[in-house]
């Protein structure tokens, strides 16, 4: 239930699972109607059910016979977890709530839930991609318990309680301002945060944020946000240099502090930090192992505890230096820094290094595993042409979420999805991003595809193929010339053969022209020759000459005899 899934409509399906999609087909499911896209896909969300329920899917389009299919929606929900930094906060102070779908209580790792609806004191917020949202504790006359509720479709609703403590504050004409957090030392070109408050508890755990306070640093002024936080950037320096930070707001007393910007000078920033003799312990949390190309978060904290009801409490460490895979980041107000695991061949171990002034430096190892996700896609395609990709997980087709050219879609049950290349002015490289879930873990994959401009491709093909075309023309001309020569020779041979056969025929039938003995006294040779010419068919002069010569020769032979 509450699961997003694709429905594919086709007019032809092969035995190996390939299909011809039907666009703009009407699909009905759970009293909802949608039209299929160019890939024949319509995406629905299964309804919430109290028990396993059979639902009907109907599809129809003009010119086609309608089709229907039944599916079972199972009554299965995932649990939600609420993580609080503390189970008691001061009135008017800002506190953080984290919503997760999975928590490893031994390592404090968790899977965040984005867009979870969190309710507190009549106010509703949505969690961000890190599963985090913030609230401001209300003013109370005495310590008061409030309920926090987290819910999201497809999950089991979660409720916990939080105690808001009453505090006493002195009213003055100009209230004092406090810098709740400011680093003492930062490195040049690094980002760091300043937190401004108008009240801080004696133990320093809670504060009341001041919004739109003006923070001036390095001749630049920023305003704090609703949580009293502003982000600053340290300037580039040639040597270690001290800077003043001034904070001011109408109705408050101005306050200032100083910090030192250190010159990195090509050395490891951690070597430039002089830590005090007494070091505090840092706690570093992240998912381990990780798949390659997987986004993940490193959370840096101290004072980590676990309550009896399983709620994890910790204090985030802000502006801690986190190094991973030659990349350096600084933790935010939530004590977190995000990274993406590198690609590996098989598996490899990487080191996460966390440092913070006043704390022991922590080095931890994370294992990166070769992704089981494979994406089969062409390396290039012409613009406006359609192409197919196939996604597999552990060599088995899988339904996956695909992002390409600002469009989002799902592969079918065979792991296939038909995409269309956009129009491009020049040959352009595009990314195809694929996301799927395995054992409650998001697995990411990405491939690149080159989209080619058709005009450029046509010009390139012509310029590359003209030598071959020219060679083909020359070969064709040579073959034609050879054929003409051969035909001429054959014609000559046949002509000579005809003449020889004619002569042979004359020799074989020469007796037909023998003189008649009994008529010799009556007719002369000239008369005989004249009769012969009259009785023979019209032939060439050459043929007659040969006949005459043969007759004369015969007569001469007889005379001699």
Tell me about this structure.
This protein is α+β, with helices and mostly antiparallel strands and 561 residues long. It folds into 5 domains: 1-76, Sandwich (Immunoglobulin-like), CATH 2.60.40.10; 78-165, Immunoglobulin-like; 178-272, Immunoglobulin-like (Sandwich); 283-369, Immunoglobulin-like, CATH 2.60.40; 510-560, no CATH class. It is 15% helix and 44% strand. The strands form 12 sheets. A 5-stranded mixed sheet has the order 11-19-17-14-15, with no helix packed on it. Strands 21-28-27-24-25 form a 5-stranded mixed sheet, with no helix packed on it. A 5-stranded mixed sheet has the order 30-37-36-33-34, with no helix packed on it. β31 and β32 (312-316) form a beta hairpin. The radius of gyration is 47 Å and the shape is elongated.
Please outline the helices and strands.
Layout: E1 4-8, E2 10-13, E3 19-21, E4 26-29, E5 32-35, E6 41-45, E7 53-60, E8 67-73, E9 78-79, E10 81-84, E11 88-90, E12 94-104, E13 109-112, E14 117-120, E15 123-126, E16 132-136, E17 144-151, E18 155-156, E19 158-165, E20 178-181, E21 185-187, E22 191-200, E23 207-209, E24 214-217, E25 220-223, E26 229-233, E27 241-248, E28 255-262, E29 283-285, E30 290-291, E31 295-306, E32 312-316, E33 321-324, E34 327-330, E35 336-340, E36 347-355, E37 362-369, E38 373-376, E39 380-382, E40 386-393, E41 396-397, E42 401-404, E43 407-410, E44 416-420, E45 428-438, E46 441-452, H1 454-508, H2 525-535, H3 541-560
Parallel strand pairs: 9-18, 11-19, 21-28, 30-37, 39-46
Antiparallel strand pairs: 1-6, 2-3, 4-5, 4-7, 7-8, 10-12, 12-13, 12-16, 14-15, 14-17, 17-19, 20-22, 22-23, 22-26, 24-25, 24-27, 27-28, 29-31, 31-32, 31-35, 33-34, 33-36, 36-37, 38-40, 40-41, 40-44, 42-43, 42-45, 45-46
């Amino acid at each position: 239930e509450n699961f997003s899934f694709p429905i594919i409509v086709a007019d032809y399906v092969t035995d190996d699972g390939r299909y011809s999609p039907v666009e703009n087909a009407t699909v009905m499911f759970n009293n909802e109607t949608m039209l299929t896209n160019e890939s024949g896909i319509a995406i629905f969300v299964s309804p919430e059910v109290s028990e396993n329920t059979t639902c009907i899917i109907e599809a129809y389009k003009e010119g086609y016979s309608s089709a229907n299919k039944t599916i079972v929606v199972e009554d299965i929900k995932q649990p939600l977890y609420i993580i609080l930094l503390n189970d008691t906060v001061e009135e008017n102070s800002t506190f953080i709530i984290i919503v997760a779908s999975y928590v490893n209580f031994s390592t404090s790792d968790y899977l965040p839930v984005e867009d979870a609806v969190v309710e507190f004191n009549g106010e509703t917020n949505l969690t961000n991609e890190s599963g985090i949202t913030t609230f401001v504790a209300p003013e109370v006359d005495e310590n008061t318990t409030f309920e926090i509720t987290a819910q999201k479709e497809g999950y089991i609703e979660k409720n916990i309680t939080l105690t808001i403590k009453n505090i006493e504050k002195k009213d003055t004409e100009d209230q004092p301002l406090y810098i709740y957090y400011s680093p003492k030392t930062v490195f040049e070109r690094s980002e760091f945060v300043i937190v401004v408050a108008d009240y801080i508890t004696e133990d320093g755990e809670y504060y009341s944020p001041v919004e739109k306070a003006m923070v001036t640093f390095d001749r630049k002024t920023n305003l704090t946000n609703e949580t009293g936080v502003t982000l600053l950037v340290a300037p580039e320096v040639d040597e270690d240099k001290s800077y003043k930070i001034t904070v001011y707001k109408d109705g408050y007393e101005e306050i200032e502090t100083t910090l030192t910007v250190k010159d990195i000078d090509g050395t490891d920033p951690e070597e430039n930090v002089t830590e005090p003799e007494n070091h505090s312990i840092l706690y570093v949390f992240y998912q381990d192992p990780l798949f390659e190309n997987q986004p993940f978060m490193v959370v840096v904290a101290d004072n980590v505890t676990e309550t009896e009801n399983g709620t994890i409490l910790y204090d985030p460490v802000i502006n801690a230096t986190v190094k991973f895979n030659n990349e350096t980041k600084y933790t935010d107000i939530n004590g977190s820094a995000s990274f993406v695991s590198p690609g590996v061949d098989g598996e490899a171990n990487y080191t996460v290094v966390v440092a913070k002034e006043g704390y022991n430096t922590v080095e931890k190892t994370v294992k990166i595993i070769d992704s089981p996700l494979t994406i089969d896609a062409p390396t290039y395609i012409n613009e406006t042409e359609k192409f197919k990709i196939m996604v597999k997980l552990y060599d088995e087709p899988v339904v996956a979420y695909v992002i390409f050219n600002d469009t989002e879609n799902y592969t079918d049950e065979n792991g296939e999805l038909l995409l269309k290349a956009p129009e491009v002015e020049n040959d352009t490289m595009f990314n195809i991003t694929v996301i799927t879930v395995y054992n409650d873990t998001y697995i990411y994959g990405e491939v690149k595809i080159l989209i080619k401009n058709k005009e450029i491709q046509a010009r390139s093909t012509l310029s590359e193929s003209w030598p071959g075309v020219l060679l083909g023309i020359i070969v064709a001309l040579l073959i034609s010339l050879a054929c003409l020569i051969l035909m001429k020779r054959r014609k000559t041979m046949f002509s000579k053969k005809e003449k020889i056969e004619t002569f042979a025929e004359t020799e074989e039938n020469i007796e037909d022209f023998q003189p008649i003995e009994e008529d010799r006294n009556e007719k002369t040779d000239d008369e005989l020759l004249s009769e012969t010419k009259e009785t023979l068919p019209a032939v060439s002069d050459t043929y007659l000459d040969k006949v005459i010569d043969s007759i004369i020769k015969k007569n001469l032979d007889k005379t001699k005899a």
